[in-house]
Amino acid sequence: MMEYPSLVKRIQAVVIDFLLILVLFSVASLLFNSLGEVADGVRIGVLVFCFVLYEPLFVSQMGGTLGHYLLGLRVKQHDAPADNISFLSALGRIIIKGALGWISFLTISSNSEKRALHDIVSGSLVCHK
Question: pTM of the entire structure?
């Protein structure tokens, strides 16, 4: 039987990912400052990776972000739990999560699979490894 993580566990994963992104962004900023002249495209690329592509890439390719992995969680397709969600679904998932913020998590306690609103819309579910 599949087990689903609590709201607290999911928030912990979000916090871990936020801290990892913050460290990555800070290291990149320090590196750019030490190098002097860095093309704007490179700076924008790092910004886009950190705040837009990190989660969709990891979720679609590895089944979860580093925060998910550290806590033993995985993001899978609701209709095919053995499979990762697609990159486009993962991108839509983060856009909805970002737009709604904590409101998206309000639905977790209202369904047996503990799916957040962004999970429902993207066709994903979060489960224990």
Answer: 0.90
